[in-house]
Amino acid sequence: MPELPEVETVKETLKRKVLGKEIKDVKVIYSKIIENMDGDEFSQKLVGERINDITRRGKWLVFHLDHYCLLSHLRMEGKYFLKNISDEITKHQHVVFNFTDDTSLRYADTRKFGRMYLVPKSELESAKPFQELGLEPWDKRLNHQYLKEIYKSKRLPIKTVILDQGIITGIGNIYADEILFLSGINPFTPCNELAEKDLDNIIKNTRKTLEKAISEGGTTIRSYTSDEGVTGLFQNNLYVHCRANEKCLKCHSIIEKTRIGGRGTYYCPNCQKKRDES
Ligand SMILES: [Zn+2]
User: Catalytic pick from 56, 263, 273, 275?
Assistant: First the structure.
């Protein structure tokens, strides 16, 4: 599943490819992708709209048009391809945006889990997908007081809580493991037992990890051509995630795999000791 850095990379790539283009017509082939209206209404509203900007909120891409904002979530397999209008529409291309310059942005999704919303510009902030999103990792309001206030009433493992998009948005399973490793925090630790210093470390390492991943993604994406699709997925150098039974890069202990809240979780039992052991 694309995580925040991949979505950020897709956003930057799309900006280079489609900013300023005007929509001539839209074909919705699989209408369940459109969450809040039917395919015909979606298509009609988009004719003549220009793509003025593309931003990201959580893992949602936001296309800023003249009168509307188009929200797009890639979920598991969603990808965008820039083609020419005359190119054949292939099996997995479900939404086709044709532009007045005869290029065509295709939303492809082999598993069809991706979703789009179209909302009037004035209703962007109150759009349904955004109502339950927490703070962005770089939001100035994200500090240890904010986390402490929310965490104090919960006894869930930090690994589960750090994935809660309603608290901090954009941390997926891969980066959650990396952030906790860098912070030296055992993933089972109940979140209400963390000290202010731990919370500061979580915030600092969230930003550091995501920034590093974004910069690596940005490097890889330059080699992408429109034929390969814009997925933003890239190989990252990870400390613990998916490295079970390998040696910790810091202390050479063996990385362990467990499950927390149903999610595969990787950690170093030495660098991330349980609190009663340290
Ligand atoms: Zn270690």
Answer: 263
